[in-house]
Backbone:
């Protein structure tokens, strides 16, 4: 026997995550029309019995994220240069953790990665040194997407700011959703 079907759907959640009136159910999009970059980075533990090799890789990412968010906050206060990092989120799946990051440009990603004064450079150096000792114990990967102006879109319904909406802010002007289709057709 199946459960009875409710006669009415509950009110959608508000930005704080609690149910509200139907008026809160509005369409939103991210508030940015220019170019941007999306960076995906992840790791996979291939030899779980070797935490001496994969745990340091897993532990390096929080240091880099702390540095990126601190630099973003310092820039917002006018105390530091803009690294171009906007926001990110961590996803956990069967293949290991994946971080989705939003940046102003691919050039900003490459500048951060190659800056010897930043956390990324020593973390990569340590990873390569460990990999030579025990090849294949842990895998890392990344993908960089340079997205031109007008070639991105988003739609958020009854959602707190997330993804591009969290990185750039949201707007109720959802006309920009057409941009990606227009760029693909051109």
Residues:
């Amino acid at each position: 026997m199946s459960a009875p079907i409710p006669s009415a759907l509950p009110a959608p959640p508000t930005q704080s995550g609690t149910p509200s009136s139907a008026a809160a159910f509005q369409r939103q999009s991210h508030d940015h029309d220019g170019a941007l970059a999306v960076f995906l980075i992840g790791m996979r533990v291939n030899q779980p019995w070797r935490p001496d090799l994969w745990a340091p890789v897993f532990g390096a990412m929080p240091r880099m994220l702390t540095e990126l968010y601190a630099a973003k906050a310092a820039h917002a206060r006018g105390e530091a240069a803009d690294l171009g990092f906007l926001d990110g989120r961590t996803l956990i799946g069967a293949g290991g953790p994946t971080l989705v990051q939003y940046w102003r440009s691919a050039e900003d990603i490459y500048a951060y990665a190659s800056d010897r004064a930043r956390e990324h450079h020593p973390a990569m150096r340590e990873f390569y040194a460990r990999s030579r000792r025990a090849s294949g114990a842990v895998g890392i990967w990344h993908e960089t997407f340079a997205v031109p102006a007008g070639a991105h879109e988003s739609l958020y319904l009854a959602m707190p700011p997330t993804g591009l909406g969290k990185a750039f802010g949201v707007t109720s002007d959802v006309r920009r959703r057409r941009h990606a289709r227009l760029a693909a057709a051109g």
Observations:
- The longest strand covers residues 36-45.
- Residues 51-76 form the longest helix (26 residues).
